[in-house]
Structure formats: C-alpha cells, structure tokens
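Sorry to interrupt, but I need a hand with the structure work. Leave the record below and I will have a look:
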Amino acid sequence: MEENGTEEAKLLMLKIAAILDEARTSYATHNRKLKELSLLRSKSSSLSHFFSAFSKTLTPLFDFQRRLASADRVVSFVSAFASAASDEFLDHFLKFLLAAATASNKTARFRACQIVSEIILRLPDDAEVSNELWDEVIEWMMVRVRDKIPVVRTFAVRALSRFVNDSVNSDILDLLLEVLPLEQNADVRKMIMLSLPPSTATSQVIIDCTLDVSETVRKAAYCVLANKFPLQSLSIKLRTVILRRGLADRSVAVSRECFKLLKDEWLAKCCNGDPLKLLKYLDVETYESVSESVMEALLKAGLVKIQNGASIQQCISSNGDRIEGDSVYCPPSIQLMEAEAALYWRTVCQHLQSEAHAKGSDAAATTGTEAEVYAAEASDKNDLLEKILPTTVSEYIELVRAHTNAGSNHRFASRQLLLLGAMFDFSDASNRKAAGAFLHELICKFPEHEDDDEGNIVVLGDGLSFGGDNDWAEAVASFARKVHAAPGEFEEVVLAIIEELAQPCKERTANHVQWMHTLSLTGLLLKNAKSLRVLRGKAIEPDELLQTLLLPGTKQSHLDVQRIAVRCLGLFGLLERKPSAELLKQLRISYIKGPHSISIEACKALIDLVMWYGPHEVDKVLELNIPGLNSEKTTFCPVNFSDSEEVLDVETLDILYGGFEIDDWASPLPTNEDECVHAILGEGFAKILLLSDNYPSLPVSLHPVILSKLLYLHFSDVSEHLHR
C-alpha cells in the first residue's frame, strides 16, 4: 500500500511538473493549464495529498535566484491557481509561503513575498480567508519590509499595498511613511510610493518624491499624482510646486510625465481644455514664473486655441466717452482685465512674436518653395498678433493707463500689459510723443502709501525698488528703453525726471516718500546704465547726483530712505572707473553702525565692490596703511566695532569678516526671513573663495580660514533657516 502511495505521489508530482513546465513557456497557455491543474486536483484522493505533491514540485523555484521571465510566468501561474482555488487550499499555500518568508535563505524569502503579493493582488474582494491568517500574512510582510534584501522589501510592500487603505491597518501606512525617507533602493522607494493611498497625509510625501535622485521614482511620482490626486484636492502651493519641478526636470522622460499630468488630467478633465481656467487654479499673481512655464509648455504643444475672435481689443470698445472727473478710475470705454487674462495674453503675444521671428529667419535662410512656406507661416503669426493687440499705440496706452489708475488690485495686470509695449513700434514721432508723455506720468507717480494707526505714512512694497516692486521696476525700465531707444535717450529722459523730483530733496523740503521715490528711480537708472560716462552732460551730472542726493540720503533720519540710498551707493560704485573714497567710507560707516537693515544693504554693496575691483584696489582708494601683498597673513584681524575710528583704518575684508562675530547679525529681518548680515557674508565669502584666482592680493593662507567659517556657518543651528 505504501509503495502504491509513493508511486501515486511521484506520478502526481510528474504531472504537476509537466503543467508547470508548460506554463513557464508562455502566458498564453495559462488558462488551459489552470483547467488541467484544477482537474488534476479534483481527481486527487485528498487535498493534503495534492498539496504535498504541489508544494514539493514547486520547492525548486524557491532556490532559483535568477530573475528570468520563465520563473515569473510560473509565479504568475501558481498565484492565479491559488487565488482561484478553494479557501482550504489557499490557507495551506499561504502558510507554506509564510514559512518560506521566514527562512534564512534570501531567495526563498524573495519568492515567498513575490507569490504572496501576486496572490493578494489577484484575490477577489469576496474571497474568504480567516482573519487570523490575514493578520499573520500582514505581520510577516511588515517584518519583510525591513528585510536587508531590496527585492524582498519590494514585494513585501507590494503585498501590503492592498491593505494600506484599511483604517484597521493604519500601522501599515505609518510603517511605509517611516521607511520611505530612509530607503536606499530606488525600486523599493518607487513601490512604496505607488502603494500610498491618496490623502492629505500622503500628498506631501509623494510630492517630495519629485525631488528623488532616481529618474524612475520621479516619473512614477507624477504618474501617482495624475491618477490619485485631482487638481481640486491639492492646495495652490502644492500645484505650483508640482509644475515648477516637473516642467523643469533635467530628465526628458520626467518632464514629459509632468506635462502629461498637466495636459490630460488638469487641463482636459478639470478645466475642459481652457488654459485661462487652468491659470485661475494657479494664483498667477503669487506664482507668476510657474504660470509662465505652464503657458509656454501649452503654447509649444499647440494646446492654446484662440477662438471666437478673442483678443485684447475686446477690452477696448470704440463707443462710449470718458466721463468727466472719472479719469483716475477706469473709463467706460475700457474693460479691466483679470490677472489670469493679462498673463495669458502677454504670453500668447510673446509666443506669436517669437514664432514669427523664427519663421522669418527660416525663410531668410532658405530658398524656393520652402522659403515661401516659412514666410507664409510668419505672416500668419504676425496677422494673428495684430488681431490680438490694440490697433493703435494710443489705444494701448489708454488700456495700460486705465489699469495703472485702477489701483493695487490691478497692478499685476498693468505690468503684464506694460511688458507688451515691446511689441509696438515707437519710431513714429506721434506714437513716441504719446508714449513718452504716459511714461513721464508713470514715473512721476508716487509709490502707493497709507497711514498706519499712529498717523505715520507707510510706503507699500519692498521699500527699495522703484514702485515698491522689482518686477514692476524692470517692466517700467523695459518700456522706457523701448520708447526711448536712441543711444543715451533713456538716460537723458530719466535723469531729467530725477532732476525734477530731486529739487525738494536738495532744498530739504521733501518728506520720506519723496526721498524714497527719487532714490528708487535713481537706483533704476543706475541699474540699467552701462557706465557713468553715459550720464555725463545730462540734466544732472554723476558727481552732483552723488553729492546732493545719494550721500545726503544715507544721513536721513528715515531708515527706508537710508536703505535705498545705500543701495544706490553700491550701484553707483560699480559704474565708476574706480570707487570714490567718500562712497566707500560711507558704505563702511553704514555697515558698522547699522541698524541691521542698513548693514545688510551696505554689506551687499561692499562685497559687490570688493569682487568687482578686488580687495586690494578698494583698500588702496581708502589710502589705508597696508603693506604690499601679505602672503604670510594666516588670519583675519579682529575688529572692534564699538570703536568707529579704529574700524575705519582696518582692511575691508577684515571688516566684513568681523561681521560674523556680531551675534545679532545672525537673526533674520522680521520682514524677510532670508535676509541677515551673516547670510550675505556667507554668500559673499563663498563667491570670493570660488573666484579666488581673480584676487592675487588675497593670501592663499586665508582660504582655509574662510572655508572653515563657511562650513561652521552651514552646519550651525542658528543659520539652518537661511536659504542663502
């Protein structure tokens, strides 16, 4: 009887082996072979008899290390059979696999976790498995998530992915969130991320994966975001983070995956293909650069279709007269744009213009039919651009004026429209005259300000840039250069306005708002001028500008006036052939005496001048008693900031380096958490060290001193909040 049983078992094993052997050759045989294996099992004398033969036949797979497609086909086949089999067989098989999952043999653990994960993902929702067995499976898979073998961890996570949504098994989610940031293997990180359910707790974790070092993980992150997180479920900040990182990713495959999310999910499904509606989800005023990137990507892909004759001209109606006394508000002939529409039309027009230029260049570079095709395409782009833009310069100016007069709520739209000025032709005298008059009006307009609770006038904005906003200042400068394009004309016009605005400052009758307005315009001019030579012979000479406006500005009682004046001194010094001693002395005094906000601007200016002229040249202008190149100097001289007279005789780099010793200068400004003297010094000395070949007067022996200070600053708890 025993011999008959043994022979029967051997025969059964041979039959099972033959089925498994055929199943490993192709997935196409699986359905047929599943029926054969089920029939074989039904004919078996008992379940235990069949399972014994089945498990013994399968055992060699648990010693087979190589990841071959044939082995994976066997895994898929036996998983399909187990998930379709009766509950009793499944219980036996899962217990068999759990025993293998606890083995010391790494291949056995890998195959066990692989098959368990396959079975779990294949099981129907109504499969009846005892809670005790499931608890055991989950427990051991959670143990294997910390396995030392990456492939074991991968399949353990895959096995748990079906349970991670279950509120009863919240510890699974906690485990995955715990191990993800510590995981060294990219495949395991990818599997963990793919297993995470959509929730507020996991959205930030998945978005963090868009910065992963592995391209496959980053690509998978955008795939997960597309499939699990609708646009409306994410905050505006998270939406913009996703797009900023994805569209600019160094990997083409990753950027394509992000664009697919943008195009197929957010634009098509959430916004019905309307880019304007999509922009409303991005807060274009706060995240302008991201919105620009989105529009550029959509325009490049040809997904922005201008329909029903939509254009900027629709905001300007030919009928309707301006109401008397209503000039400071929007005239009835003008319809004010929303921020999204203004950015939309600005990017569309810039794209059309660049496309027209590119096609025109292609036409010029080729001949025959090809050139005609390119020329026709360029003509089409220009025609469409003309249909979108206001028909005349006067209409364009009225449109921009209406938005600028409408107040701060339309400041963003005003700037977008101002940037469109680059597309108009101001060579005609009448156009230039109208634009010049509007520009004068724009520049002479005082910055927005309001009264605080104590009745003091507070200027809105950053307190440094013209108009209180660097982007606005750049837009005004760009428009001014377009209108006054002749050599030296821009400087002549702006200097004439400065001379006009500076009169109350010279007479000491100006309040701090007038001072700030005049100095911020001066800063705009100095920032855009190529040298002081261009400014000579104009309404106000550079020396007069320095003596009657910039230096007196640093001595004003109002701190915001001092800040702008110090900023202007730094810009002025960069335009000189060599920095003037008086200017350098004032910057050193402002740096030493502060307060903090003033010291920051003086620190920036001094570092810029040291890097531009070299530390030795700067000190030579000050006529300090400095020996020649001191190659023996191994440390920076200590500086006593409380003794102003002593400090003024110290080398500039010593003064700057001494700022590291002032503890109060490590704290950021309340208005800007990234700005403090230590942050500026750290960035400045890093640049000086990086470009040290340009500064032979800086002893090589000081390089380790600077580097050690930078390392200390980088790892210091005090400076960990400083992005610089």
In short: Strands lie at 449-451, 457-459. Residues 200-305 form one domain. The longest strand covers residues 449-451. The radius of gyration is 36 Å.
